[in-house]
Automatic annotation (TrEMBL):
Family named by the database record: Belongs to the enoyl-CoA hydratase/isomerase family.
Coiled-coil annotated residue ranges, if any: none
InterPro entries for the chain: ClpP/crotonase-like_dom_sf, Enoyl-CoA_hyd/isom_CS, Enoyl-CoA_hydra/iso, Enoyl-CoA_hydra_C
Domain of life, source organism: Bacteria
Provenance organism: Actinomycetospora flava
Record-given protein name: Enoyl-CoA hydratase/isomerase family protein
Length: 257
């Protein structure tokens, strides 16, 4: 299997396990992650894999979200739009992959990490897991989370997480439909792989058609609005202040209206 810098892939029979692999940074998602994730999915599909488990390395985080410092280094509208398009393209690749993708959320799933869980077909969570989409705290919104959150967990819960930046625990996430099963922390990966193997025993064409049919109601055209809206926010003074406050570890001082 190809060597990647941001993820590791263990292709073990019908079920592959993909680890977000920056545990020292709580598996924060750098610019390099997005194309690597798409490439891994394409290679696994070509290799005959039947299901994929996506989880985080280490014991604390699935993913703490995007690399905030990296956002601040993007210069110009074109670069910001291209970065946001890369993110949306990867979420779409997970949603549209013929392979069922199972998130095994082993800790923090914040920002882009929570969005990754929303893009997956099934979500299992450790009892220690926590979910949040706190981007408004740096002057942004989760470009994919605002699109998929309402369908998965309802409009009001999405607003609770996006507008108020509220963090929810695994039990709450299960209750609102973001998570399908909560497991003991040490049993999470084994349980997720067991679900993948159960899917792998089913007729592959039926699994592929079933996933496609269930996703038929997903509006793909809405990503264009998200792309432009988030690009606009990235260029505001509020976002510049939010990123500066984050890196300087101080409260932000927003002035936007």
């Amino acid at each position: 299997m190809t060597e990647y810098t941001e993820i590791t892939v263990k292709d073990d029979g019908p079920v592959a396990v993909v680890h977000l692999d920056r545990p020292e940074k709580l598996n924060a998602l750098t610019e390099a992650f997005w194309p690597q994730m798409r490439d891994a999915l394409a290679r696994l599909e070509a290799a005959g894999t039947r299901a994929v488990v996506l989880t985080g390395s280490g014991d604390k985080a699935f993913s703490a979200g995007g690399d905030i410092a990296g956002f601040g280094e993007l210069e110009g509208t074109a670069a910001k739009r291209a970065f946001q398009a890369e993110c949306l393209r990867t979420f779409a690749a997970i949603e549209e992959s013929p392979l069922p993708v199972i998130a095994a959320v082993n800790g923090y799933a914040f920002g882009g990490g929570c969005e990754l869980a929303l893009a997956c077909d099934l979500v299992l969570a450790s009892e220690r897991a926590a979910f949040a989409m706190p981007e408004s705290g740096i002057g942004l919104v989760p470009g994919f989370g605002v699109l998929r959150g309402p369908a998965v967990m309802g409009r009001h819960w999405t607003k609770w997480m996006v507008l108020a930046g509220e963090r929810i625990d695994a039990a709450t996430a299960e209750r609102i439909g973001l998570v399908q099963k909560v497991t003991p922390h040490d049993a999470l990966l084994d349980e997720a792989v067991a679900v993948g193997r159960r899917i792998a025993r089913a007729a592959p064409l039926a699994v592929r058609v079933g996933k496609t049919m269930i996703n038929r109601g997903v509006d793909r055209g809405e990503t264009g609005y998200s792309l432009e809206a988030v690009t606009m926010l990235q260029e505001t003074a509020d976002t510049a202040e939010g990123i500066a406050a984050f890196t300087e570890k101080r409260p932000p001082r927003f002035e936007g209206r």
